[in-house]
Write a structure and sequence with these properties.
Elements (H helix, E strand, L loop, with lengths): L15 E6 L7 H6 L4 E4 L2 E9 L2 H13 L3 E7 L4 H15 L1
Antiparallel strand pairs: 1-3, 1-4, 2-3
């Protein structure tokens, strides 16, 4: 574990959740599909949609496309690993290195 990347212990985002409002959210499906992201309508409102963005590198492209085409970005929440998950990842990386 001494060789594990302790500087990143529990700090790195692992994707994000994007919530947006658009009456015709399905119009973004072809673009989102190209990026490997699926739109999930939210219960109680056909105009509110959730995106689970696993790759942080595509998040800006998605937000730019949504906002540029009139969708209202409600929230962007980074997904951070729990302390336990970060610890297990670090300890398993240490085992693999030995």
């Amino acid at each position: 574990m001494a060789d594990a990347p302790l500087a990143s212990f529990g700090t790195g985002a692992e994707g994000s959740t994007v919530i947006f409002h658009d009456e015709h959210g399905e119009r973004f499906d072809p673009f989102l599909g190209e990026l490997g992201v699926a739109r999930e309508p939210q219960p109680g409102s056909a105009a509110v949609h959730r995106l689970a963005v696993a790759d942080p590198r595509v998040q800006d492209r998605i937000l730019e496309r949504l906002a540029g085409n009139g969708a209202h970005i409600v929230s962007v929440t980074p997904e951070r690993p729990s302390l336990e998950a970060a610890f297990l990842r670090l300890t398993s990386a240490g085992d693999a290195a030995s």
